[in-house]
Amino acid sequence: MTEPVRSLTELLERSSARRFLQAPAPGDFGLAERLVFPFLGIVGQEEMKLALLLTLINPVIGGVLLVGPRGTGKTTAVRSLVDVMPDVQRSRCTYGCLPEDVETGGIDAICPDCARKYAVGEPLTYQDRVQLIELPLNARLEDVVGGLDERAAVHSRLRLTRGLLARADHNLLYVDEVNLLADEIVDAILDAAAQGIFLVQRGAVSATYRARFALVGSMNPEEGRLRPQILDRFGLRVIVRGLEKKTDRLEAYRRSVGFRGSPRSVLNDYADETEAVRLELIDARRLLPDVRLSTQAEAFGLRMIQELGIDSLRAEITLFEAARAHAVADGRPVATPDDVGTVAPLALRLRRSEFMDKYLRTQQVEERQLLTLTRKSRRSRPAPRPARRTRRPTARH
Question: Which candidate in 129, 167, 254, 314 is catalytic?
Fold first, then answer.
């Protein structure tokens, strides 16, 4: 990368225009080493890449759902985010004490050891990368929310072990084939994502864990549908299709072969740009609280939602928060109608329900009939007679 870039969106456009003409010589990269394909090396799929980066910038968006057939790069794209993950502050305490706990609940809200550190000015957190937590398809409910420690139970002791949801706090939780998960697991994930905390209780032992994570899911519609209440929880929705241009498909093949032959060489080729994206994400997260929506952007977004007939209030949350993230990614402090228009397909698609549309139309017919009958009943009802005034008896002397 020889020329400086002005914003994150410009950096993505420049990386997508690169061409990988020939595969490097194969290299020995070790059997135990896990190297992921570079995020910026993915050919095309600009909408998918944008949605994933916006979620990293602003977790309030509510995550991303990737919908598409097999082999379109959904899982590859999510796993490739590892190298561009921004930094986050993590607690040094086993109980998860944070400075924000003191700000909201006072010094008694943290453990005595952290209270002592806070009093003398010692840090309660350290800086770490956001991590990608993957949920296996064969995961049990105990694996997700946590359960009793079997090793402690052997010694007649009761102790809880943390599950994947607790590990996902301040991280990115990826659920592949989300439409194939058991209902109880999906419900646990959605409840934790909505509340930011969840309770684990096994007999007399209970614990409350934080679960403030960005949720990314993927699915192939051929393998089954997704429950409407689950679909509504995902903020951004991306329809991932196969590459249409022959040149793009050939370029994707060349990059795939090159990475398979010498992954380190390909990663080094994108190292500078990858680090630049990571630093841009850190700056974007830092500047996001100061980004606001213009009045025109708010009016434009509300008009689109109303004309589309979307009932869920999550539409406004996702649309406006994604627009703010897009503005800060472009280096601007104010989100405009153009930002809203750019993220609107991501935020508003797949939010209408044919069943609910038909159901509400039927209810409107019934409501009109009830209103008509009520008016007829009022017109046919005889007018009440005025009450007769009774003369008060006069006192006799």
Answer: 314
